[in-house]
Amino acid sequence: QVQLVESGGGLVQAGGSLRLSCAASGRTFSNYAMGWFRQAPGKEREFVAAINWGGGVTYYADSVKGRFTISRDNAKNTVYLQMSSLNSEDTAVYYCAQSSGSSTTDVVGGVPPYWGQGTQVTVSS
């Protein structure tokens, strides 16, 4: 079994920054691609960012390109999402996910089998 635990969510002012963390356990972390998704009230879950098994390839949704950065530290079994220039459209529950494969396309194109419980990010005016 894989456990993913997100942290770092909270209330932030518009234009501000926030960094989310996701700590993984249960299987070899470095073998698998990771991703971040989010879901706002009344909206569908949407893809945010993905990173491949080694951390050298990333992929972002158009809505967050240039503002968000995904990274990973395999020695710490942790993936991060650095968010900047936050706006109200970024308000959502953010979920960490672990893919069944090693590539970013495995995250974007499929449905990751493992998910965290989510962490709330609220951007205030």
Strand content: over 45%
Structural class: mainly beta
Helix % is under 10%
End-to-end Cα distance, whole Å, is 40 Å
Quaternary structure of the protein: single chain
Major sheet characteristics: 7 strands, mixed
User: Radius of gyration, Cα only, in angstroms?
Assistant: 13 Å
Low confidence ranges: none
Give the overall shape. globular
How many strands?
11
Round the mean pLDDT to the nearest integer and report it.
94
Summed up, the helix count is 1
Task: Write the H/E string, N to C.
Answer: EEEEEEEEEHEE
Structure at a glance:
It is built from one helix and eleven strands; from the N terminus they run E-E-E-E-E-E-E-E-E-H-E-E.
Q: What brief labels describe this structure?
A:
125 residues; 7-stranded mixed sheet; globular; 47% strand; 4-stranded antiparallel sheet; mainly beta
Please describe the topology of this protein.
Layout: E1 3-7, E2 10-13, E3 18-25, E4 34-39, E5 46-51, E6 58-60, E7 68-73, E8 78-83, E9 92-98, H1 104-109, E10 114-115, E11 119-124
Parallel strand pairs: 2-11
Antiparallel strand pairs: 1-3, 3-8, 4-5, 4-9, 5-6, 7-8, 9-10, 9-11
Overview of this protein structure:
The chain is mainly β. 5% of the residues lie in helices and 47% in strands. The chain contains 1 helix and 11 strands; from the N terminus they run E-E-E-E-E-E-E-E-E-H-E-E. It has one helix at residues 104-109; strands at residues 3-7, 10-13, 18-25, 34-39, 46-51, 58-60, 68-73, 78-83, 92-98, 114-115, 119-124. Strands 2, 4, 5, 6, 9, 10 and 11 form a 7-stranded mixed β-sheet that branches. The protein has a 4-stranded antiparallel β-sheet with strand order 1-3-8-7, with no helix packed on it. The longest helix is centred in the last third of the chain and has 6 residues, at 104-109. It is globular, with a radius of gyration of 13 Å. The mean pLDDT is 94.
